[in-house]
Amino acid sequence: MALETELKFCKPDFGRVHENLSRLGADFQFRALERNLVLDDVDSSLRHRGMLLRLRQVDHRFVLTFKRPPTGQAGKSSDAPCGATVAKVLEEIETSVTDFQAMQCILEALGYRPAFTYEKVREKWLLDNAVICLDRLPFGRFVEIEAEEPEILRLAADLGLDAGCATSENYHELNRCHSQAAGLPPEDSFVFSSEERARMAASPEI
């Protein structure tokens, strides 16, 4: 399995980040709306062990992803406090699939069922060996940097990101924290409204 090391940065100034990406010579990859389906068993045992099983749709492409803590390390509890600042390291396997619904049926036949869905608009850039993603979600904007751990904060500074806003939480946990802070009822799924999708279709800006 490949190792994935990443940090997210909350409340970024996308305009400033774009300027710095251009200044640093980063390579733009794509901008797209992502649909994500997370699956788990009836006991939510994957989540409790810090694992993730996900089907993702980006345009007409479909990807199956499995993530877990590195061998020998305990899974991260879903009840961990918001705002952790240590980079998250996970083992990851990804593969393209040709039929989203067929793969979902296979996983459900194996005992995994939809746990929640989420959407985001992702803009992906490459800079040397780092992957920088500007993400717009229904509850906020974030920048995610995937790189070797010593490089993440250095690159974040180059992009004008605040290290004090760094978090290793996943988007499900961040949505939970957002709902909690806003006094909203907890919702596992977070998707754009039809009106938001229409506005995004009319404007290419993230």
Automatic annotation (TrEMBL):
Every CYTH domain range: 2-177
Superkingdom in the source lineage: Bacteria
CDD domains: CYTH-like_AC_IV-like (cd07890)
PROSITE patterns, A to Z: CYTH (PS51707)
InterPro entries recorded: Adenylyl_cyclase_CyaB, CYTH-like_dom_sf, CYTH_domain
One Pfam family per UniProt: CYTH
Name the record gives this protein: Adenylate cyclase
